[in-house]
Design a protein that fits this description.
Blueprint: H1 2-9, H2 17-35, H3 43-59, H4 64-78, H5 85-96
Helix pairs in contact: 2-3, 2-5, 3-4, 4-5
């Protein structure tokens, strides 16, 4: 039953497996951030950006530049916390599946 609900939740993303995986990675990092005991000065910034990233991805067809901007903000907010590094690495790798930002000439 839970699997069907997850599938319906991401149906707006066109069933894109990258979107499903990326939303899962965002949820994982949000959980780990919430459970992390240390006071982080930018915790609220990271959590807000993770929520925004989840919304953008689940809406479907996100812009690569928006994904990379979110990653930069999140990494800046939690990048020095080694306990969050594996989840942050997963997030970075999944955003990388969307490709490079088109260059402007």
């Amino acid at each position: 039953m839970e699997q069907r609900q997850k599938y319906r939740r991401f149906a707006g993303a066109g069933g894109d497996p990258r979107a499903v995986a990326l939303c899962g990675a965002v949820a994982r990092l949000r959980r780990e951030l919430a459970l992390h005991p240390a006071e982080l000065p930018d915790r609220a910034t990271a959590d807000d950006e993770l929520a925004a990233l989840y919304a953008v991805v689940s809406a479907g067809d996100p812009e690569v530049s928006r994904l990379r901007r979110s990653l930069l903000l999140i990494a800046g907010a939690v990048g020095s916390v080694s306990a969050l590094a594996p989840a942050l690495t997963d997030l970075r790798e999944l955003i990388g599946l969307y490709g490079e930002v088109p260059r402007r000439f």
